[in-house]
Amino acid sequence: MLSSKFLKIVILMALIVLIAVAGFFVVQDFKNKEKNKFNLEQVEEEALASRPWIEVISSQTIKKNSETKEVLMELKTGDELEYGETIETNESGLAIIHFSDGSVLRMEENSSLIIEEGSFDEKTESLKVRIALKLGRVWSRVVRLVGADSYWEIKTSNVVATVRGTAFGIEHFENVSSIFVDEGKVEADAFDFIANKKIEGTKTILEKNKTIEVKKEKIKELKVKPTELVVKEIPREILSGKWVARNKEADARFNEKIQKLEEKGLERKEIRIEIKKEFYDKIEKRREEKQAEKQGTIKPELESKTKLENELSLIEQKIKDKKIEAQSVQKPLTEETTAKPKSLAIIMSQINIVLTEDDVLNLKAILTMTDGAKKEVTQECEWKVLGKIGFIKAPGAFVAKLDSSISELGQAPGQIVCVWTDPKTFETFLGSAPIIKVQTKIEENFETRG
């Protein structure tokens, strides 16, 4: 028989071997996880550094074939953009084109452009953007370009604007092009559309609050006798207009975001990734939706929610524009101490957000003043139902009723909103209730059989 001492030695050695083997697998597992983590971060970074993509603020924005003019698709938030295709907004369309370094190009209503180039090299931090504005207005918010060969260029049929980090707007209507500078400097050259090149000798530098205007008929003159373009102060009515005001507000939010990230000690590359991560889910969501559309498996409910979001965004944008217009025409008040309207909220009579057809939901519109006081304005509000889920019977009274076009789905999401206009200042406020679901009413028939 084996001695107890020998058995102890064997058991001890076996334990050592087991620990060694276990340790090996733990180390390997850790290495694999780290490797996978590295690969995941690398893949994520590559995904984030993809082509330009669009954020649709209010519909409608479409993509067209630049040669045949054929409408290819209606664009949605998260759609990636191909070079050479025409992007257009309609009379209510607003959109933002995002580039991989964090710079953005905001499209206004009734605008049309072609992205001729929009590449970004992560290693050299070189951004190369060329935009051809065919019609309308765009606003550029360009992150300071680092790469020596970086450029951001927007051209119309009359003028070319080139920058390395600034905020400016450019518009083109009826053969007249104008540039408006809000931050930094913009280099402007007259452009010969037929020869497709800048006109030498017309280079002009614009600084903050400066503008130029170039008409089509002026191009012939400049080709014969090149001179610098005439620089003027931006007119007060343009500075206080909704287009400039809306974009200055957006730029302020953008600058604040960058500042907060810099205060955390993040470097340029880290800041870019943080900015893009905010929108990464939207891009992935659109990829999944487009894949589902190709396979014919897209969920009707998801499609309804997307339309709902677009409807609400459009209403919110219209209200913002009205506020800006009201502020631009409102006269300064002297010795004004009266409380002013601050916000609008909708209070529902029940917490349940799932209704059945024919259910009645009562709502109240409550206005909060700057001094904290509350005021009910249910009767004075304009009530709207977003989605085909019912109708407003009376101010604050919603009746659930699915439209015949979607009743076969069994249920659908929707939202109730109200708009209140201040009779003194004409400023508008939006109140919105939580998203609710309306279900089809199932009739129960009982038969007695004998």
From TrEMBL:
Keywords: Coiled coil, Membrane, Transmembrane, Transmembrane helix. Residues 205-264 form a coiled coil. It comes from the Bacteria. Gene3D superfamilies: 2.60.120.1440. The keyword Transmembrane helix applies. Residues 86-187 form the FecR protein domain. The chain crosses the membrane at residues 6-27. Pfam families: FecR. InterPro entries: FecR. This is FecR protein domain-containing protein. It comes from bacterium (Candidatus Gribaldobacteria) CG_4_10_14_0_8_um_filter_33_9.
